């Protein structure tokens, strides 16, 4: 069984990450959020961090919530993840969500709410409702990539908002509908 371990470059926060692992085994919920109990409450960017043990984590909710200065997010194994709600909510400077595997996701609610600078959403196997209407800088190519990464579905909704919908070609719209997704 993999350990719930985070590998950070040597720094004064190593003790805090050990404390986090002991108190919050099995979840990354709120780990890097803007709260006072966050492992990285003293730093603004975790893009260079490496993670071990994430392959067994199911709860990634609020992991980076409120990190207004976060511009890059690290890629790590999310294959067993179920809850990604508000994972990046309020990360106003985040440019891209990396290629997380969302095949087991049950909630993406508010995942990128308030991510005004987001230009890429590279997640794979998108399997439940997703709202990207809060991301006005997503371009045509980024939105087409999102649609190509939608899993076959019945009744899921991809909320893009009026401006993002206008960026899609009819081919993109048809592709989403063929996969069983509603666009709005």
In words, what does this structure look like?
With 184 residues, the chain is α/β, with parallel strands linked by helices. The chain has four helices and seven strands; from the N terminus they run E-H-E-E-E-E-H-E-H-H-E. Strand 5 (130-131), helix 2 (140-148) and strand 6 (157-159) form a beta-alpha-beta unit. The radius of gyration is 16 Å and the shape is globular. The N and C termini lie far apart (42 Å). The model is unreliable at 8-22 and 36-45 (pLDDT under 50).
Give a topology summary.
Layout: E1 5-7, H1 14-23, E2 50-52, E3 96-97, E4 120-121, E5 130-131, H2 140-148, E6 157-159, H3 161-166, H4 170-178, E7 182-183
Parallel strand pairs: 3-4, 5-6, 6-7
Antiparallel strand pairs: 1-2
Please give a handful of descriptors for the protein shown.
three-stranded parallel sheet, 9% strand, alpha/beta, globular, 184 residues, 7 strands, single chain
Order of strands in the sheet with the most strands? 5-6-7
Spatial extent as radius of gyration: 16 Å
**What is the CA-CA span between the terminal residues?**
42 Å
Q: How much β-strand is present in the residues? A: 5-15%
Count of spatially separate domains = 1
Structural class: alpha/beta
The major pleated sheet works out as:
3 strands, parallel
Number of DSSP helical runs = 4
Which geometry do the CA atoms define?
globular
List how many beta strands DSSP finds. 7
Could you tell me the mean pLDDT? 82
Low-confidence stretches: 8-22, 36-45
Order of helices and strands: EHEEEEHEHHE
